[in-house]
Amino acid sequence: MKRFFFRISSALAGVALTAAPSLAHTAAPKDEIKVLIVANWEVGNDSGDEPGEYQDWVERLHLNEKVHVRGIPDVLRRNSDGVYAIVLKQGSLDLNALALDPHFDLHHTYWIFSGISGVDPNVASVGSVAWARWVVDGDALREIDDRTIPKGWQYGLYAIGADRPDTLPANANHYGSVTDVAELTKAYPLNQSLARWAFNLSSKVKLSDDTVIAERRAQWKGFPNAQKAPFILMGETLGAERYWHGPSRNKWAENWVKLWTKNQGQFVMTNEESQHYQLDIRTLSSLGYLDANRVMVLRSGSNFDMPPPGVSITDSIGDEAPGQKLAFDNNERAAEPVISELLKHWDEYKTHIPG
After folding, report:
1. Higher per-residue pLDDT: 30 or 23
2. Is 90's pLDDT higher than 50?
3. N or C terminus: which one in the chain shows less Cβ crowding within 10 Å?
4. Is 288 left (phi over 0), alpha (psi -120 to 50) or beta?
5. Strand, helix or coil for residue 4
């Protein structure tokens, strides 16, 4: 490498160096992203047809301008106020490409990771929206067939390195290079002060309801929170690539979130991607590309993660369609006052994180 540099330097020795200052003056300024909405998928077009996770944001925030991101086919959408949005069609590739693209400045960006989820009927109802304090990873674990588990176990899912469900590993050696059990955590803490600030701003928002969903709520006898009209709350997001369903797995999710948050968190929403993106965010923040303290996670319930009383698991799994549109709608509604406040007082919030 040094010899290559020497040859280049020698070749340029006789070239005037007056170009460098002019390049510095003519370099295009970076796009400063004030607020960035992150969605996970969209069906059809970004606007004008049936909505997915992205469309309500595009239409209601007037994100009419498209901006290309270097190295990926997907684009950002933005409005004149500094609000941007992206749907991560390529997953983590999109997220990392955006952070590494020198055309954008993400150092003061407030992120809202949005999306629909399965919701715990013990805590909330379909159409409800939750601001998370933690994102919990539900992927890396040990699994034994529930039909062969030892007597007294609720399920065959437990932490790697532990000897039974609902307990933490006794030591860190099971993960090789890890030397401290604390490093094994599956809970990614968000900025809880910022989450509470966002919740307080949005808590009085009037959410939408749906007649079909309202009729279905009557099935949930013995689950008072599942029978409520949609509401806004604070509660944790569990990300797991397995599409799980049923009361046994719901109990595992409740206990898994409590375990890794040291009984401070409450499981509310489950989806398949949050854990990956929060790990990406933490890595990018540690490298100086963005500020993880400005990240918010807002999930809405499109369906329950277990069947109502009297309904079989196989008849209820994947029953998302009736609640999806409601969940899309309320997700955006809950975030509007937060976005509005950030823009209204941007001079303050650019350098001082609220909460």
Report:
1. 30
2. yes
3. N
4. left
5. helix
